[in-house]
Amino acid sequence: MRLSELVRESWAMTWFSRIPSALIMVVVAAMCVTTLVTVGSSAGAVASVTQRLEEAGARRLVVGDGGRQGFINGRTLGEVRAVSGVQSAHALGLPFDAVNGVFGAGGPSVPVWPVLGETSGMARLVRGRAPLPGEAIVSITRLNALRLQEPAGYLVNPDTQQQYAIVGAFVPEPGFEDTSAGALAVAPPDAIAQELRIIVDDITRAPVTVKAVMGILSPADPSTVRVESPTALAQTARDLHAQLVRQGRSLLFMILGAGGFFVAAVVLADVLVRRRDLGRRRTLGISRLDLIALVVLRALWTAALGAALGVALGWWLTSRQGVSVPADFTVAAAVLGTLIAAMASMPPAVFAATRDPVAVMRTP
């Protein structure tokens, strides 16, 4: 038979055998719904974990000089920025309280972080310009606290009477959210910083980056050094990812296996009920291969429709639960459900094609 004839005849068989076709459609739809609600939720969790690991806050490496040894300076900062795997690096000093110079010591105060070098990469300017040494930018959320309508005026350190001209307002970049509570002031080039914040470009390379950075800093007394590394987070995330993948794979195999079993049972029952019709086709000259293709194509029609309905219902259910299932997983679930139904229908189809048509026609 030609392909067009096989397709037309398989569709006619599907329409004629409504009950078996409906059963196959229901089984495949249930298989796709269960896959999305269970395994799809795990896939969404895996995607969420991966996305969180790609955020700058999760890729932050912090090295603190608790002993004031002076190993965080302009030279080491430049060398750290040149390390492969370092997306950005900034050196900060100990924060101090500063007040609006117009109001003096009795006015409102905010914490100020001295920054070694430029502030780009740690603060996004929304007003004004980038600060130079001896100048400051204020968090956009703290302008009102300083009784400022615009980023203008100056800040004063009440302890040292050091003044910092306010030249702009900023929004902190990821990894520097704590600076939104105050202001950033550019320190002199020869200043010594107390904290080094590094954003690595890949959390899986964090251990290698930490080793390279510590090799550059070379603190004389490592016992006073504070290190906050994403290495432990990366390992935990990898373990969680592997566990979710294993559970999802096992559950998926179970769902597909159960669905394939029920589809095979329905197709086998239909083949046994319609054995005389299939035997008549064999006596009229249809080949075994064409008969197998006819039975499989009939299952494919209903399986494809059931998969479409199943993923639509599963997507709706997961959306109501607040779970985001990846689109590629949804498409894969529909394709897998259809293929499993086709594969499950092949053994009954082979059974029907290999039976003796004469013996079948003699069966009452």
Short descriptors:
six-stranded mixed beta barrel; elongated; alpha+beta; 9 helices; about 375 residues
Would you give an account of this structure?
The protein is elongated, with a radius of gyration of 34 Å. The chain has helices spanning 3-16, 18-54, 74-81, 206-217, 231-273, 275-283, 288-320, 327-354, 357-362, and strands at 60-65, 86-92, 96-100, 109-116, 123-128, 135-139, 154-156, 163-172, 183-186, 195-200, 225-228. Helix 5 (231-273) packs parallel to helix 8. A 6-stranded mixed beta barrel has the order 3-4-9-6-8-7. 38% of the residues are buried. A hairpin with a 6-residue loop joins strand 7 (154-156) and strand 8 (163-172). The chain has 9 helices and 11 strands. With 364 residues, it is an alpha+beta fold. Helix content is 52%, strand content 18%.
